[in-house]
Inverse folding.
């Protein structure tokens, strides 16, 4: 049977197929009461995540400076950071300046799938951030000591952060660098997982999404807990606004 005949039969079968109805989502549990930001902070810290608070762009830079200076003994000095897209800085009111790609470099910008690098000699964080474009090579992303992205949602009940990949938002930056920083607006905090799934538009929010609770960890081998195997060893969240 030819390839085209097989494809035609598949198309005909799909035209008649009816997908089952999606299950009804449960109602919010109501377990989270009071200030949900305090719930979120407590739960994330319980999962070994780090939380900082920042009211404006200047406070975000101050928090980044504290994060850079609080590196663990086995971590490299943070002299550069990777940013997934310029909208992250704009959303959280962080001043910046860009060095656009040279004529020899592809003039793609974040929509081309790479990322922006900010330089921090001796770990200093100064405004405006000086950014330069870097192509999306996996090896380069793995060599960056710290990456910064913007969280789509935060779940207070579990201290989880949801972020998504899509145009200009590479999945590499959230998993390859040893330390990942998420900027999350307080307006994006939800009480529980039920509230999150009620707002999630599956298939319309980028090519992939992931819920993260604390640093990456696994105990697959001999039930011995190892941190940083499948993702960052450290996760820091800066609550903004």
């Amino acid at each position: 049977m030819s390839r085209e005949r097989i494809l035609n039969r598949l198309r005909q079968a799909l035209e008649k197929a009816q997908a089952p109805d999606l299950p009804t989502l449960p109602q919010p549990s109501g377990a989270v009461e009071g200030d949900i930001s305090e719930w979120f902070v407590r739960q994330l810290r319980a999962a070994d995540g780090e939380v900082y608070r920042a009211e404006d762009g200047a406070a975000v830079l101050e928090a980044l400076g504290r994060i850079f200076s609080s590196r663990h003994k086995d971590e490299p000095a943070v002299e550069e950071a990777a940013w997934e897209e310029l909208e992250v800085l704009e959303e959280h009111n962080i001043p910046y300046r860009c060095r656009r790609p040279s004529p020899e470099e592809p003039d793609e910008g974040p929509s081309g799938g790479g990322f922006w690098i900010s330089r921090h000699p001796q770990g200093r964080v100064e405004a405006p951030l000086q950014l330069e474009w870097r192509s999306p090579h996996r090896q380069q992303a793995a060599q960056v000591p710290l990456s910064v992205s913007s969280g789509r949602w935060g779940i207070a009940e579990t201290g989880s952060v949801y972020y998504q990949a899509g145009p200009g938002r590479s999945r590499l930056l959230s998993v390859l660098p040893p330390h990942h920083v998420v900027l999350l607006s307080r307006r994006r905090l939800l009480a529980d997982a039920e509230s999150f799934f009620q707002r999630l538009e599956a298939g319309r929010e980028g090519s992939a999404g992931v819920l993260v609770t604390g640093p990456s960890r696994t105990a697959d081998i001999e039930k011995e807990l190892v941190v940083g195997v499948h993702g960052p060893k450290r996760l820091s969240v800066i609550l903004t606004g």
Notes: The two ends are 61 Å apart (CA to CA).
